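Hi R.,

Here's the chain you asked about this morning:
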Amino acid sequence: MMSRRKVLISTAATAAGAMALPVTAQQQVLTFGFNPSADPRAVIANSQGMLDKLSKAVNMPVKPFVAADYNGLIEALRLKRIDLAYLGPFAYVLGKTLVDIEAFVFAEIKANGRIFYRSQIITHKNSGIKTINDLKGKSFAYVDPSSASGHLLPKAGLIKLGFDPDNDFGRVIYSGSHDANAIAVQNKKVDAAATGDRLLDGVIARGLVRREDITVIWQSDPIPGSPMVWRKDLPADLKKRIRAAFLEAKDITWHVHGMLNGFKPTTDADYNIIRETAQLLNLDLKTLK
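And the predicted structure, written out as tokens:
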């Protein structure tokens, strides 16, 4: 995993060089990075309304960027190539050890009024898999090593149930996105996969997967929503306008979550559950650089 992370960060650094510079007196563009949990085209299209509101609030263009992986977003923040990012919970906790960033809001989904979500382990209804023990010897897909619902939480959940995720699976892959995991299960390319419940809802709503074909055999306790973060070195007045734009937005689409009621304030302490889970997995966040 360490060598994979180094490769990802090195790749991200190369890609980040072509991105817009952060906001300065000369460069009047705000660059916003999105997490790579779904189809980049859908992510940008669904978020454009909010980006337009943000652009009006800060009186400058807002440039969207969807990274290839979570590490790409973290590295782009570290290099100051992006100013804001929509990170997964674990990517935020990891990024916090590498970059001086701050979480300030997360989304409230209109369909259920939730500001949290759950990790799930899914299988095809015809897989014959009914319980966690049935996963032994089977193929399994995680999303990304830095994904909370697509890796960290399900792995911890398996361990708590006496399943050894490092040795009990027949084959393990990292697909790179929640969409890819759900589609792989739908098409029986893997026996089971990890995902987030609202991300699964999104891929079903877009007609890529049929709900009736999917069986959920495990789900986590509530996970705090993916945070919006900014680099703490952005000017205070700019951060004030950014925060206000998000908190004032109502009934707007975002990412692949569909319609939102809006955004709610969050703080770093809301993500201590992720840090506690990392401890359960014996992950030293400072060594994952």
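The longest strand covers residues 101-109.

Let me know if you need anything else.
M.
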